[in-house]
Amino acid sequence: MALGMAFVGLGFRADLMTARALMFLAVKFAFTVGIVGLALLYLARLARPGGERKILPPLLCRCAVLVIMVLAAISLGSAPARIGKG
Questions:
Q1: Burial 27-54 (b: 16+ CB within 10 A, else e)
Q2: Distance between CA 38 and CA 43 in Å, rounded?
Q3: Which residue from 3, 9, 50, 70 puts its CA 20 to 30 A from 83's CA?
Q4: Per residue in 8-17, pLDDT tens?
C-alpha cells in the first residue's frame, strides 16, 4: 500500500529503463531477496527450542556487512572521475 502511494505521489523514475538503472535495481533486489531468505531460514531455526545453539548469528552479521562493503566499493569504483576544480 505504501509503495503504491509513493508511486502515485512521486511517480516512476524517468531513467528507470536505462541499462545501468536496471542493473542496479536487479542487484538491490537480489540482495534483498538473499537477506530475507536467510532471515526466514534462521528465524525458523531460532523459533524451535534449542535452535539458538545451532547457528552463528555473529557470522551472519559479518557476512551481510561484507556484502554491503563490496557493493559500495563496486559503486565507488564505477563512478565517473571528477576532472577539474569546482
A1: eeeeeeeeeeeeeeebeeeeeeeeeeee
A2: 8
A3: 70
A4: 888 877 777 7
Task: Report the distance separating Cα 79 and Cα 72, nearest Å.
Answer: 11
pLDDT digits (tens, 9 = 90+) for 55-84: 666 666 677 788 888 888 888 888 787 776
Cβ atoms of 55 and 45 within 8 Å: the answer is yes
Q: What is the model's pLDDT at position 80?
A: 80
pLDDT at 85: 63
Q: Report long-range pairs for 16-25 (Cβ below 8 Å, ≥24 apart).
A: none
CA–CA gap between residue 57 and residue 82 (Å, rounded): 41
